[in-house]
Amino acid sequence: MKRSMIVLLTGIACLGFAVTARAADSPKPEPVPELNWRTDYAEAMREAMDQRKMLFLFFHDIEQTAARRGFEEGVLRKAEVVDKLSRFVVATLPVDVTIPIKGEPTRLLRHAAFGEMLGRQGIAIVDFEHKDESYFGRVVSTFPFTPGKLYTPAATLIVLDLPPGTLTQRTMIFAVRRHPEAPRSTEGALSPLLVREASMQSDHQADILLQGHHAWESRFQRISAQLPGGMMAQEVVAESWPNENLVEACIDCVDSWRQSPGHWGAVRERHPLFGYDIKRGRNGIWYATGIFGRR
Fold first, then answer.
1. 167-219 pLDDT, tens digit each
2. Least CB-packed of 156, 165, 179, 183 within 10 Å?
3. What whole-number distance in Å separates Cα of residue 98 and Cα of residue 291?
4. Separation between Cα atoms, residue 235 and residue 267, nearest integer Å
5. DSSP string computed for 62-115
């Protein structure tokens, strides 16, 4: 049975598109600006590297299917989405696009870096902006479309506004932010300390294949001693069902926190500092951790 856990220590130890009618005398909306969509992966990658920008990729069905048309017309042409995308280098690629690797043509979506795309239509982001970080040049977002579903404009805006981080960290933050009750734990500042601690705890759970707040008393003291302004550390952990993909597992872990008032109180509250991560064990189960700095 899937479980979630929380420790609170205080001092001692889609899909629908809404259409709004416009009055006849209302001014006409400004035309949506055109984006410079690249169709060559290598060219788009070079441009993103040269300009130190994030690279946004839309992998689409080869044929002009209803799903492809729905995302292109119902999401990618929304003014607010276009405004966010203007900060990216953008490319649209067929799902069977190939690139040369060691002289051999290789299907891009079969490369390990895009493994969480599951070979499907969807969106991915590669980080060419944060040059000094370990995730520079790496895939930091993968959002494959679930068959029969698309990402809404609202969900896509969340994807486009995620803070810097690794693929697993950003996907956990997405899962928190996309919850319909709008939990606030990611509204504070993303703390490198808490991100690192969350990553280590998720790694540890995945290594031993056991969810829990292992050695929390000592970790609480160590983390709290490094937090500014007398803040204290707070942690939540959860595990997914076996063999879920990354996006499913992150959403599942957030949903499991929602089932417990104690867990949800921590995830729902706005904290000055936060960090999230999730890692997969060899048993196919993902182990999530959220750590907060609270006053």
1. 999 999 999 999 999 999 999 999 999 999 999 999 999 999 999 999 999 99
2. 179
3. 40
4. 9
5. SS--HHHHHHHHHTTT-HHHHHHHTTSEEEEEETT-EEEETTEEEEGGGSGGGG
